[in-house]
Amino acid sequence: MFGGQVIPPSKSPHLRKSDKEEGNVEMEGLLHSTGSNDLKIASLPMTTAAIMPSPILLWRFKVLLFFLWGFICCKIGWDSVMRMSVNLRDLFLYEAFLYYNPLLLVTMMVWLWGVNLWVFAQSTISYAKIFDLDQNHLTHREIWKVATWMTIIVPTSMTAYLYLYSHGEVSLAASQPVLLYCAVSLVLIFPFDIFYLSSRYYLLRTLWRIVFPLQAITFADFFVADILTSMSKVFSDLERSVCRMVHRQVATIAWFEADSVCGSHSIGIPIALVLPYIFRLFQCLRQYKDTKEKTTLFNALKYLDCSTSDFSFSP
User: Fold this and answer.
1) Which end of the chain is more exposed for a tag (fewer CB within 10 A), N or C?
2) What's the domain range around 181?
3) Following CA atoms 146, 152, 158, 163 in sequence, which dihedral angle do they give, to the nearest 10 degrees?
4) Closest by CA position to 233, among listed 181, 310, 293
5) Could you tell me the sign of the dihedral formed by the alpha carbons of 179, 184, 189, 191, in that order?
6) CA atoms lying within 13 Å on the CB side of residue 14
7) Phi, psi angle pair for 76, to nearest 5°
8) Is the pLDDT score of 22 beyond 60?
9) Which residue has the higher pLDDT, 161 or 259?
């Protein structure tokens, strides 16, 4: 009776907390857990920021890799050229220049176009309205990104061409420019929503309107066609490059004969040279049909004269 364990009743006020006290305890636990979660969430960005490097550091690292890649390409290309005989070296360099010169010039043009857009942006010029672009048009940063990839891919293919040819892998060397041209063509017509689909198709539609001016000429049509007139040499080199690829004359000297199908006397050369001027000629005629302005006829006469001059001075 006196030494046994005393078990108080479960309803004793000394053991059972009141409803108010239980509510306070639950509220304290909830606040404690909420505070802990807030501390964890607040510390998460700090931890992520500590792990991720700064954008400036990433940019410097990319620039370092870019220059390292450029040095490696130059070193491999130079060593490959030095392996060849002196008599073969000039012909080989001329051929390599022919295949890769058009795409290198286009790459330079894309870089400079990005510079133009940057100047427009700094000058607060609304070039999107001038060129009739939608809100999804590419900015100068995206243009430079495209130019960077072109700068990497084209010289890499040229370096592989030089290396493989100098080491006796003629068939593999001949496939390098073919693969490059096919890749560029596939990227332009790729139907999936990657690689700036809307911009690629806008360019293709503009080129289609330039070749077939069956509608009113817009400023973008005129502007791109005017750029093409400055790239007549690119068109000429493209014609000879594609001709040699089609006739399997890459990495050979079959084209060296002037009267061969892809030689310097080919009729395709002057045709490729005058195509941009013919496009502008038909654009001017279309503008005269729409506006009846006589100045467009004078412009048409100018481009007609350029076309006949190219045919007259062609070999």
Assistant:
1) N
2) 55-251+261-313
3) -160
4) 310
5) positive
6) 3
7) -65, -40
8) no
9) 161
Provide the token pair at 235: 């068109």
Cα separation, 223 vs 219, in Å, equals: 6
56: tokens are 């400036």
Query: What φ, ψ does residue 137 adopt, rounded to 5°?
Result: -70, 160
In a domain, 113, yes or no: yes
pTM of the predicted protein model: 0.76
Nearest to 288 by CA among 275, 302, 304, 299: 299
pLDDT of residue 189: 92
- The angle formed by the CA atoms of residues 121, 125 and 128, to the nearest 5 degrees, is 90
In a domain, 43, yes or no: no
Say if 1 falls within a structural domain. Answer: no
For the segment 107-148, what is each residue's pLDDT rounded down to a tens digit? 999 999 999 999 988 988 888 887 777 777 888 999 999 999
Measured distance CA(226)–CA(279) in Å, rounded: 9
Q: Do residues 107 and 152 lie in contact, with contact meaning Cβ atoms separated by under 8 Å?
A: no
The number of distinct structural domains making up the chain is: 1
- Would you place residue 247 in the very low, low, confident or very high pLDDT band (cuts 50, 70, 90)? confident
Can you tell me whether residue 85 is helix, strand or coil? coil
Of all residues in the chain, the percent with pLDDT exceeding 70 is 79
284, HSE (Cβ side, Cα atoms, 13 Å): 18
Are 219 and 133 in contact, with CB atoms under 8 Å apart? no
Six-digit token pair at 63? Answer: 């620039």
Residue 42 in domain: no
Question: What backbone phi and psi angles, to 5 degrees, belong to 249?
Answer: -110, 10
